[in-house]
Specification:
Blueprint lengths: L10 E8 L16 E4 L2 E12 L2 E10 L6 E7 L6 H21 L4 E7 L31 E5 L7 H7 L23 E7 L10 H11 L1 H4 L7 E7 L28 H10 L3 E3 L6 H15 L5 E3 L15 E5 L5 E6 L10 E5 L2 E4 L1 H8 L5 E6 L8
Length: 388
């Protein structure tokens, strides 16, 4: 599924519960009810009596702050001896510009750093992203719940192969016994930041690496039709007209700069995945570019189309087969989303239930995400004719 538009506003979910002999009912006391929270955020429920289907109904309403999808940032840095100025700029800006912007946007993010650990051209990331100080440099990387340093030195010739080979390979310190893959979340947005002078490679074409990466884990990186990753390149590319702004995906391959090769495989991969490109040697402007990339992440991360349905009070249970959704478009037109058994049976106007979560099908999700004034009415507790 390709997110059609990136929303910055919450959806309003209107929830109605109808009671019958075989269904759950809520008691509305003082205009308040129960609450639930889930992948799509919290539900604060208030209610007022209503009627429907000949049985007494209690109308419930809830405003849900649907959260954006999580983001996993993978920083891959060539730590050969010529990269000292670059790795210092990474250490400086990864906290102050990249993660600070993600933090202010209240995104659920993690950062994986694949690079040699230490001083000089190696890297040490300190708090708040890292788990401690880097002066003096500790013997081992200091990790945090949001940060994994996978200690693996790489040069330009092995750049692509290092990314692939370490995906499930245990690291040297026992921090990642299943490789850095275990630190990524399925269905999160993956954002690569690649730093190399490309003096001796990589020789693998960008399109071939793309195929290999997608084959590693479609759940994590998507498919050729719907990639869930973007690859930003810092290499020997010519400077853009504005030195504080990167080359966009719409710009063709540009010539070499910084005295290094133009890194054609990396440029091709960035263009293919919708990534940005920036001259490796322009470290004095990394602050602006890191912030630009972080803001790009914020605008491109879609609102989740998954939310939990409310849990009734008093230990009662909800029959998920009775759930139905009414989608009100910004212009006021209403459309009913019907329940199907699973994602495999999705239609353009349907949803399905997994456990205690309601998930909009791909086309329905696209429609709601593209509508900044969308509202959803969720009804449950009455027979809607759904048959498993």
């Amino acid at each position: 599924m390709q997110p059609a538009a990136w929303l910055t506003v919450p959806f309003l979910l209107l929830v109605a519960a109808c009671s019958s002999d075989d269904s759950v009912s809520f008691t509305a006391a003082g205009g308040s009810g129960g609450a639930a929270s889930g992948a799509g955020g919290g539900l604060a429920i208030g209610g007022s009596p209503g009627s429907g289907g000949g049985a007494e109904c209690i109308s419930q309403s809830a405003k849900a702050e649907l959260t954006r999808l999580p983001v996993d940032v993978i920083v891959v840095a060539d730590t050969s001896s010529s990269m000292g100025a670059v790795t210092s700029a990474i250490e400086l800006n990864i906290n102050t510009k990249l993660t600070d912007t993600l933090e202010k946007a209240q995104l659920d993010y993690r950062v994986v750093l694949i690079a040699g650990y230490g001083s000089g051209s190696a890297i040490c990331v300190q708090a708040p992203l890292g788990g401690g100080k880097c002066s003096p440099v500790p013997k081992l990387p200091a990790l945090s719940p949001k940060f994994l340093h996978y200690d693996q030195a790489t040069g330009s010739s092995a750049f692509f192969s290092t990314i692939l080979s370490t995906f499930t390979k245990p690291d040297a310190h026992g921090f990642a016994p299943k490789g850095w893959s275990a630190f990524l979340r399925d269905h999160s947005k993956k954002v690569f930041l690649a730093f190399t002078d490309a003096k001796s490679g990589p020789s693998t074409p960008g399109a071939q690496f793309d195929e290999q990466l997608l084959a590693l884990s479609p759940a994590k990186f998507g498919t050729a039709d719907s990639r869930s990753y973007v690859f930003h390149t810092f290499a020997g590319v010519a400077p853009p007209p504005d030195p504080t702004q990167p080359w966009l995906p719409s710009h063709p391959v540009v010539g070499s700069g910084c005295g290094y090769p133009k890194a054609l495989p990396l440029q091709d991969l960035s263009i293919l995945s919708g990534g940005l490109r920036y001259p490796l040697c322009s470290t004095q402007s990394y602050d602006a570019v890191f912030e630009t990339i972080a803001k790009d992440v914020v605008t491109q991360v879609a609102v989740s189309c998954e939310f939990e349905f409310p849990k009734p009070a008093g230990g009662q249970t909800l029959d998920p087969d009775t759930i139905q959704i009414e989608y009100t478009q910004g212009g006021g037109e209403k459309q009913t989303f019907t329940q199907v058994k699973s994602a495999a049976e999705c239609t353009a106007s349907s949803f399905y239930v997994e456990g205690e979560a309601v998930l909009l099908c791909a086309d329905a999700c696209d429609a709601v995400q593209a509508d900044e004034e969308a509202s959803l009415a969720v009804t449950y507790g009455c027979d809607v004719g759904f048959v498993k």
